[in-house]
Amino acid sequence: MSSIANVEAYILKAEVPEPFYFAQPGYVTHRSSMVVEIVLDDGRIGYGEALCNGHQPADIAAATVTASLKPLLIGRDPLQTSVLYEEMYNLTKPFGQKGGVIGGISAVDIALWDLKGQILDLPIHALLGGAFRTSILPYATGFYRVKDGDYPRLLVEEAQRHVRNGFSAFKVKIGFGIDDDIRNIAAVREAVGSGVRIMADCNHAYNAGAARRLVRELDRLGVYWLEEPITPEDVDGYRSLVEMAPSLLIAAGENEFSRHGFWPWVKSRALDVLQPDLAAGGGFTGLREIQTLALSAGLAINPHVWGTAIGLAAAIQFIACIPPVPISRGGHEPMLEYDQSAHPFRRDLIAEQFAIVDGRVSVPDRPGLGITVNRDALLKYRY
Ligand code: CA
Predict the structure, then answer these.
(1) Interatomic CA distance for residues 96 and 94, integer angstroms
(2) Are the C-beta atoms of residues 341 and 308 closer than 8 Å to each other?
(3) Of 92, 318, 353, 354, which is least packed with CB atoms within 10 Å of its CB?
(4) What does CATH list as the number for 126-362?
(5) Integer angstrom CA distances of residue 77 from 42, 47, 142, 224
(6) Which residue, 365, 309, 356, is CA-closest to 335?
(7) What distance in angstroms lies between residue 151's CA and the mean position of ligand 1's atoms?
(8) What is the CATH number of domain 4-121+374-380?
(9) Which pTM does this prediction carry?
(10) Active site residues
(11) pLDDT tens figures, 203-220
(12) Residues within 5 Å of ion ligand 1 by Cβ?
């Protein structure tokens, strides 16, 4: 039996070329990530990542890993992913449950599954019971704003760029005022036509009262889903939007975590699409449980992704294993959120590129996460 010999938390940080902003106050000036490296006594190395949203310091997840989780993990069997997940969650419950703390647990869990795949010589999708698809439809995330930007002109140009780059779906940042949002989505829709799938993301800019008009107008513009229209604590508000929305789907979940966090949402059917992030919501172990909750209620699950290529690789393995909801020719097929915004080290951390070929991203068949981590880049961007 292999055992865990060391656990290292890397805080990665780099300035973006041009600060950008979204619906929440402030500018994103840096991209950050917390990467976990787990070394076994036989020399095998596994990697995982904790999501850092636009304003989230990687230090919270890193401190969780080094101060809380590492003493629990040293000497343990890396194959015991469920046992270790429950122990890590229980240990940090009094001061964790959400945010950066479960982000740290998620990074460790991803690294453990990477190791499990290497030990058993199987890709993670095989360990999870098999892939429903060998490639995934990506959607571009971007449309952040820059100081003195000319909108909607820049949004239209970006939309056309994504289509040229092979995307047939993308997600536009809104949440800058309902009139502004409607004007911008209408301009983008007119530029790309009805053949492109458009999502819109408010980053919880509104309350339920204000969001009702947005739901009605975006539905009219053929938007596929509206993401985080309102604050992530307002389960009842979300349910009211789900109940009024004619065909537009209501999506959220990047700010919710674990089976405990998602249970009230599923129980009250307050969302159409659940969007837990693998690198924040509980890793493979945690997201499997959230998936079971979602499928039990017939709700779609489509993970959120906004990290480096390590988090992207993990998401690809997981998304491959989500069945269509429901299984039918018309069921919801999960897509891969493919961040196209500025990120100085997103691609540098691993050797592999997840290229878009014929509009889709292939699911790797190599063991574990199927990636080769570039340790020089880890050290270069270490903060
Ligand atoms: Ca979002």
Answers:
(1) 6
(2) no
(3) 353
(4) 3.20.20.120
(5) 12, 16, 40, 44
(6) 356
(7) 20
(8) 3.30.390.10
(9) 0.98
(10) 304
(11) 999 999 999 999 999 999
(12) 201
